[in-house]
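$ ./design --mode recover --in tokens.txt
reading tokens...
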């Protein structure tokens, strides 16, 4: 049974980083419930981790619904700039109060987050005895 006092959203703040002369911290999102589902009401008890340096940028990363990202961008308004991480592109600047970056700028940052990169895959599906096993080289 889960503890109703624990938030199903965990936010963690990484150390200050510098890339291409830009100082920023990484704010990571983790959905902690077993089913990784959250509800809009979970925002009521969500707080940013302490230690955010508002003179630098913040890059948000992790899985979460668009409304969670929107809320975090709003809460991070006092920071110099905010970017959202896209594993295909890097960090995309979505708001700024700094002349160092501009909205739409992509910062070439690639995080592995401890997950292996997945390669291409082929999935063969169908009803039993439809030949899928033969296609995969299992039975002859």
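writing sequence...
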């Amino acid at each position: 049974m889960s503890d109703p006092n624990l938030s199903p959203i965990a936010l963690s703040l990484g150390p200050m980083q510098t890339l291409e002369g830009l100082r920023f911290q990484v704010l990571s999102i983790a959905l902690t419930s077993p089913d990784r589902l959250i509800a809009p009401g979970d925002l009521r008890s969500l707080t940013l981790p302490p230690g955010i340096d508002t003179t630098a940028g913040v890059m948000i990363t992790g899985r979460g619904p668009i409304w969670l990202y929107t809320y975090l961008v709003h809460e991070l308004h006092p920071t110099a700039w905010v970017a959202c991480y896209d594993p295909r592109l890097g960090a995309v600047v979505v708001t700024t109060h700094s002349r160092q970056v501009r909205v739409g700028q992509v910062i070439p940052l690639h995080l592995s987050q401890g997950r292996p990169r997945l390669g291409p895959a082929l999935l063969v599906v169908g009803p039993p005895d439809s030949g899928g096993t033969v296609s995969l080289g299992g039975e002859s």
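exit 0
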